Amino acid sequence: MKGVAAIYFLLVLATTAALAQAPAAPPPAPPKFKGKAPVSDEILQIKLPRAQEAKLSNGAHLMVLEDHRVPSIQFQIIMTGAGGYYDPAGMPGLADTTASLMDEGTATRTSEQIAQALDTMAASVGVSANQGSQVATLTGSALTDQFDQVLALAADILLNPSFPEKELGLYKVRARAALEEQRSDPDFLREERYSKAVYGNHPAASMGLTRESLEKMTRESLVAFHKSNYVPDHAIIGVSGDITLAEARTKFESALKTWARSSTPRPGVVDPSEGGVFKIALVNRPESVQTAFMLGQLAINRTHPDYDALTVMNQILGGSNGRLYRELRERKGYTYGVYSFLRALRYRGDWRAQMDVRTEVTEASLRDLLAELAKMRDEVVPAAEFKDAQRSLTASFALSLENPNELLNLYIVRQLYNFPIDYWDRYTERITAVTPAQVQTVARKYLDVKGLQVAAVGDAAKIAPALRAVGPVEAFDDEGRPLTPAP
Amino acid sequence: MKHHRPLLAVLLVAVAAATAAAITVPKVNFTDTRLKNGLRVIVSPDHAAPVVSVAVAYNVGSRNERSGRTGFAHLFEHLMFKGSENVADGELASLIENYGGSHNGQTDKDHTIYFEQVPSNQLDMVLFLEADRMRSPAITQENVNNQREAVKEERRLRVDNQPYGRTSEAIAELAFDNFANEHSIIGSMADLDAASLEDFSGFFKTYYAPNNAVLAIAGDIDEKTALAKVRKYFEDIPPGPPPPPLDTAEPPQKDVRRVTLQDPHARLTLVDVAHRVPGGLGPDVDALSAVSSVLGAGRSSRLYDSLVRRQQLAVQTYAGMQQGKGPGLFYLEAMVAPGKSAADVEAALYAEIEKVQKGPIEEWELEKARNAARRSLVSNLRSSLQRAILLARYAVYFDDPGIINTRYERIASLTIEDLQRVARQYLVASNRTVAITVPAPKTGAEGAKGATGAKGAGAQ
Predict the structure, then answer these.
(1) Distance (Å) from the C-alpha of residue B255 to the closest C-alpha of chain A?
(2) What whole-number distance in Å separates Cα of residue B261 and Cα of residue B157?
(3) In this complex, which of A33, A176, A289 lies closest to B338 when CB atoms are compared?
(4) Concatenated DSSP letters for B170-237?
(5) pLDDT at position B46, please?
(6) What is the pTM of this model?
(7) Where would I find the H helices in B88-166?
(8) Which domains does chain A carry?
């Protein structure tokens, strides 16, 4: 399956003339551009190297993107079924704890030996299992001349972790402190409250370890989770850098030869149930000088037909120079940054925005943000702004060619979701085909304020009245308990 | 621990180094040219991907600020995104993003740098935008007022609303006596308010001339074409008089200095032990960066192994060094484990310093630093943006872009004796500032906020 696909980046769309003609009327008035900077309208032809692929004998799918410019190799082993999504009931954080302890001792190596070996080579091997994610991922990187040693360590960590009691005990000491620290972290607090509001009892609402579940983690529970969930059957091995497919195949076959097929079916997912009505969850964090917002609602999964249109909509609204940024940061000076994201996985995910604003403008900034959502629903995006967003999405694809690992990640997405082999070759075509009418349609579907969930972390005494002026408020303390008396 | 990380780009020395012997180390190729107006131009071609990156570094940072105007260099950086004679407010960001690129700026103590990464056929656009704002940025009251608010939000976000957000600021204020070195990059709210339009015009004329800047281009462009384009857009920008010399010298410190900080957002006590280290990039700084690797790099580091694993006094440790033109700080840091004492943690940090000073240091501990240097060289080769930024930065910091290549050899040539010598010279009490950040009492905290402590006798 080797070969090269050509992608044509159409840079002819909006010229400087089009920019200069951008409509000037309704507030927020787009700045009148001067249109003097020279831009290239040439069609930049880009050859997109494809990953080369092979099946290993244990069923794992190997994907290799060669890049011999520099003597280093990056790799990842992605295991569906071992992520935080599959934490057993009553054991939130088991997947994460299992992943975290895999490099803390194997049948033949102590934690100290592993750390010393990796640090001495300035190499990295680590396992992570994010909350709400189906997958656990082992990632590694090495200089070419040390790759064999690093791969041997990675294989040992993956296949023979011993989860020593002593290391679990030390881990608990650190984790207790981290659980304490995160209760004052505005980023953590807003995501915790927002996720609960949007996902309810779905696994995507979990923030991982709790004080209760941490104490329930035993060596036996980690051993059992590892044994049943770290299987090669549905695994993807992605390798990029200074290596060929033939070399990678030989080396990974050999390093992972004891990793036997389990013949378990691919673990499934369920969608979260439909969310509630518009409300604001206030988390009291005394002496805050900002309000940390996260807001959004359920949207789509990764294979949904609205995905491309929502991608374009999100670029227009919450991209790095999108409407939210231009209006709330550049024009109003409410915040250092405001962005939005589409979280689309195998189950139904969400669209969300976040910003940190000074306490005094809590109400005004929330109202302005909601007004931008209303504008996306109520007005067709002007042609020039629309084409700018499309071009931004397609032209920026060229930058990923510099980093083979980034490009490989796109192919891994293709493999994870069973997209057609030319999925990324046709990316420009698909994005360019999205119309302003489609963007308005998805805005109406997914930015409907009636179901919007807002989390706001700040000093309750100062911001509760401001939030109440915008919508119904439920208040919590920084431990997640209902705040009494209500502020 | 995040408060030392990218607080407006403090360059933390990633330590590195090498039993270089048989290992082949790739090189970054570049050319180094000066235009008639004094602009230094560095070009580093690489045709692997249709991408080109540009970095423009001005030789001005927070060290050049005067008393009462802290945060000025950084606020000026924000102003540079608000338009120029031929570019409207917001047009630079829109053009770069809409044509598939990315861009940003950073201010630190020693320089202010602007950078872009774009598809390679947009190089003219980027050079036009950078030249236009080097020549004629839109310094207006409206823009100043607007970006002052954005910067205040940045300060709230990164400093005032974060656990331990104030700690590194307080340490620098205490550790240094020269105003150039002691004040923070982001500055104080009051000083941001005090900055006038005249201040901005004066600052621009003094520091934003081509003869006080370095332009680096890396990626898919050949040297000749790149230079021709740079000449076209930049060569007629008039040079300015040389900026006033900057004195970063510190009066000698005599005793250890201490401060205790009450932090309303902290949940655990943080112990910081900072030591003054010299500016520039001499052999002592190379050796100190390797010492920071021995003490702080990874789970195999001495601080983690001793304080977290064996003694269980701390839950997190860190060691690192700020590096630049002027004096910096070598930090040791530990988050105190619940139920343990800050005094015990502090004593344990000193014990680890003493072990480095008196030896032994194992060969593998030095090897860590060597391999880290090799890896950072390799990663610089892959990314055109990283390469452009580092070439421009090293030219401004050390007048030597070639450090991107020679850094590895410098680290590789260090010996264990070098590490012990600098540990004995710099990591000593008379060169030390200690900060203990403790959780503020939960309620009625008014009056308990802020710092208590003083510079030691003989200071100032």
Answers:
(1) 33
(2) 19
(3) A176
(4) HHHHHH--SHHHHS-SS--HHHHHH--HHHHHHHHHHH-SGGGEEEEEEESS-HHHHHHHHHHHHTTS
(5) 92
(6) 0.90
(7) 91-98, 123-135, 141-155
(8) 52-255 (3.30.830.10), 274-476 (3.30.830.10)
